[in-house]
Amino acid sequence: MKLKTTVKNLLQDIVKNYPKLENDFEDKPITIEIKKWHKKRSPDQNALMWVILDKMAKSLNLTPDEVYCNMLKDYGVTADRPLGVEKDHPQYNEILEQFNYYVIRDGKNSKLDYVYMVFGSSTYNSEQMSVLINGILQECENMQLDVSYESAELKSLLEANNGSK
Q1: In angstroms, what CA-CA distances link 117 with 100, 114, 146?
Q2: pLDDT of amino acid 164
Q3: What predicted TM-score, i.e. pTM, was given to this entire model?
């Protein structure tokens, strides 16, 4: 069960949902995690981002996916984690295939390699998407690539999406 609430309303919402909780979980142990809520990125932002990535790709003689991966590495959400198995483990490659975008880093003082994971934008909230889009727009400016129409549309969408948190 997910519950979106405010700190002021937390107890009221738990009490209100108590019959369902009791029915679903009875006396089984449960875990409750509280974290700040973020609005998800919008499909319109995503669509316009891909229009810009396509323009960048044509200018750079790359595919849009290659440009997307580069932008994610530079401006996206990333994490450095131990892979969990040694290189000679039979499932080493199978485990790596679970990640869409990654870079292997030597574990230095460990037998385990580290995976520098890059998360795709479909998992982003509006704040993370804003950072990615602003980075892409900065890259376009550095390339002197005219994306003024798309840029204005995106900035409008970002303001609308971030303004109504």
Answers
A1: 8, 9, 31
A2: 46
A3: 0.62
